[in-house]
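Dear colleague,

Following up on Tuesday's group meeting, I ran the structure prediction for the two-component complex that the binding team flagged. I've pasted the input sequences exactly as they went in, so you can double-check that nothing got truncated or mislabelled along the way. The structure tokens for the whole assembly follow below. Feel free to forward this to whoever is handling the docking comparison.

Inputs:
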Amino acid sequence: MFWCFDILISPYIIQNYIIGAFKPPCNITISFADGKTRKKASIKKENGQTAMVPLFQSLENIVGEVSIEPVQGKKIEHTGVKIELLGQIELYFDRGNFYDFTSLVRELDVPGDIYERKNFPFEFSSVEMPYESYNGINVRLRYILKVTISRNYVSNIVEYQDFWVRNYTPAPTINNSIKMEVGIEDCLHIEFEYNKSKYHLKDVIIGKIYFLLVRIKIKNMELEIRRRESTGSGPNTYVETETLAKFELMDGAPVRGESIPIRLFLSPYELTPTYRNINNKFSVKYFLNLVLVDEEDRRYFKQQEITIYRLQETS
Amino acid sequence: MLPHGDDEEKWLAEGIAGIQHNAFYMHRALDSNDLKDALRYSVQMLSELRTSLLSPHKYYELYMRAFDELRKMEMFFREETARGTISVIELYELVQHAGNILPRLYLLCTVGSVYIKSKEAPAKDVLKDLVEMCRGIQHPIRGLFLRSYLCQISRDKLPDIGSEYEGDADTVSHAIEFVIQNFTEMNKLWVRMQHQGPTREKDKREKERSQLRDLVGKNLHVLSQIEGVDLDIYKETVLPRVLEQVVNCKDELAQHYLMDCIIQVFPDEYHLQTLETLLGAFPQLQPTVDIKTVLSQLMDRLSNYAASSIEVLPEFLQVEAFSKLSNAIGKVVIEAQVDMPVVGAITLYVSLLTFTLRVHPDRLDYVDQVLGACVKKLSGRAKLEDSRATKQIVALLSAPLEKYNDIVTALKLPNYPRVMDHLDNGTNKVMAVVIIQSIMKNTTCISTADKVEALFELIKGLIRDVDETQDDEIDEEDFKEEQNSVARLIHMLHNDDPEEMLKIICTVRKHIILGGPKRLPFTVPPLVFSALKLVRHLQGQDGDVIGEEISATPKKIFQILHQTIEALLSVPSPELALRLYLQCAEAANDCDLEPVAYEFFTQAFILYEEEVADSKAQVTAIHLIIGTLQRMNVFGVENRDTLTHKATGYSAKLLKKPDQCRAVYACSHLFWVDEQDGIKDGERVLLCLKRALRIANAAQQMANVTRGSSGPVVLFIEILNKYLYFFEKGNPQVTSSVLQGLIELIKTEMQTDGSSDPSADAFFASTLRYIQFQKQKGGAMGEKYDPIKI
């Protein structure tokens, strides 16, 4: 059994909860039919704690049951009970605005009264959920089940249940290596190579850096994984860049002719697949940033985009 | 610079504290089997090794502490994987998540060790991966220590033949590949150290580098320990690869150390079979590399190897070790390292020579070749000033002597004297003495004139003044020592064939005559005696001498002797010359050569007259003359008279009375030769004795006048003894009454003489006792003595 407030952290929800808790006329629980066996995703909440939420992928059937249990001795008059499946994009700078890219409704009950505990099974079949759940800096993409008990004169009773969506893609057929020569004239020439341009989340980046010319005293070299989240469009574009990984590749000053190996396991880092222009609202892109630091702490770097995808796990 | 050391101590202390701190938590994690924490703290611990502040020496201390902790990690990894908590492959990935490269690689190597042990992957793959990944450390000190760690943990895990990690057919080459790659990278880092940092600290860096050299050399050691490295593989792969690295690194320190290392760690047998390759590398080294030490080392090892067993010698011949070494040295000395100091070049030649003598003792031409090369190197230079170089040349020249124990062999080497020419005078002499001592020690007989010629050419430093200006500085005693040894040497020159012997004598004469006044007194006598020996020898085989072409006649020899002794006159050393003349005269006497003997005597007298001025010398000389003359039997009456007359005359003209007296009574013997055909002129004997008595009397009186005491009674007693001698020999002029008179005379003298001389008393008493004894003996002699009363 999952309590929505365990999972949802949005202030609005808390507000709703507080209102509801003030004098809760009933308890609503939303449970999934395969709740015990279904895989769960470990999600980091804003307060740093992790929570487990049920995990779905696109075109799955979402089947479950809503249970409404009025508080002892009270009846609930309502003008109808419905459950909605919502896919929402929430932009933090655009507070309060949800963009629902998916919205499915099932009526659970015709207007009437509920005196005692009542269960309403529901089912959304082959739901198209093209986008993955995402908690970013400026944007959140989430999927929720929303139960609404509509009432006259008094506010509706609403209950939410989050769930997580991940979509898997097969390995790309074309996956070229990234190879490039960069440098500062008469100062530093290097050639680097990453074995692929598309990596899955548990992949390993293998590569090499050749030093063609070294006239500066390099202190070390590292490879960074950077995530660039851009939200909005046009003049209202917000870009946030995070460095998720700093991986030291080399210690000390190389000379001409040295080649330094790269082997970077992606699994320890909390990456998501690359998201391109999700519903025209946001994008999340990943970059490999090769940084050379000289003894005066000057940084020389070259950034290369890589695509990250979620590989269909075979087993 | 000073506070630097203090700071360093502080930094080291901080580093150690950091390691201990994290190791503590690491141990706790290990105890509770908490892999995640163990990794976390071990990474933090290893991060202390990322410091750049420490010198290699201090860094090593830090490294060793981390090393001990890593051993514990390795144990833990092994237990964890054995327990099945985590597979070794997962672990191998897990440690690579560390963000900092240095701790990451230390852990990777540690897990790698466990990985190989688990045999879940072929050792060669794991090793290859490790050695590749270590490229990430380009900082020299950190890289060297990391790779040293890799070398350490892998040395018992190489996929060697016979090892439990042995792989497929190519297994050895993988093992070699791994070690060589690690070696190459380490060497590169090591060399690079020299070029990083400010120039003013160059010396300091050089010092630091030499502290690190064993880390690099360890790889070569490991390489030599690989069972699978047989001669073929060594020849085809190992050596060329290693040498390539050594040559290409173009670093003086590294090249010197590594060449030395190669020579030390691999078996001599391999060196022998790969000599060409190995030697081929030397000329390609930096011109400043101290090749001579390394090359000498190699040759010493090879010589020892050759000496170790007779069975290996054919190998040396087969690979033409000598010519290869010789060529290589030639190339190094002449082409590659033109600036090599002479001492270096000579050291090389000494080693080569030692090698030659050990390996090819029968090949004198090789020895000469070495000397020749040395001469070539020295040619165009003045005498050597460098004392070390001189020392080396002495060693070079002494080696063949010691080896062959025979100077004759050395004399066959045309280049030997040419090398000696390059020594300064002092050393040249030392060397000459060494040569002579060698001859003495082995009692080598030098038996041909050619060899003598060559020998004297060698030791000419002793024979004549090469450079006169230096003479004053020569220590008198050393000089005597040297010349005595030359004298001894002359006695070693001998041939039974008179012809050849004569030639030898002539040769020696030719040389020593140039010796100058100081040397002649030492060198002429042995020559004279040597010649006289020859004369005696000829005389011994008198009968056999047939034919007239023989040049070695006594006559001829005497001529030479005459001239030789004459040389002494210029010295001047008249006493010596005189003695030698007398010796010659005696020899001539024995050869029945009256004129020659006479001539020698004449010369002796002339010398006496003209040159011997000192009265003491005169006394000695006259006694010598008398003694010699007494033994002469070759003279006719006339000649003899002349000579005896002269001798008696000179005797009476000595300065001091006692001397006169003694000389005169000695002359008495000239007239009484106690032999079969000897002259027996009793009258003249008595004349002499009487004259002696007179002189003794005069001496007595003179003593009375001048000192108030009686003179030497002892003279009378001595004369009495002479009387007794002739009395016994049957001189008719000496009668018992004469004796009686003389005894009485002495007795009175002794009584009047107040202060009696105890020695004279004893002398007289024993004389009387003798007479008494003869009287009591009876027989003819007893009768003769009978009339004498005591």
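Residues 231 and 270 of chain B are 6 Å apart (CA to CA).

Cheers,
M.
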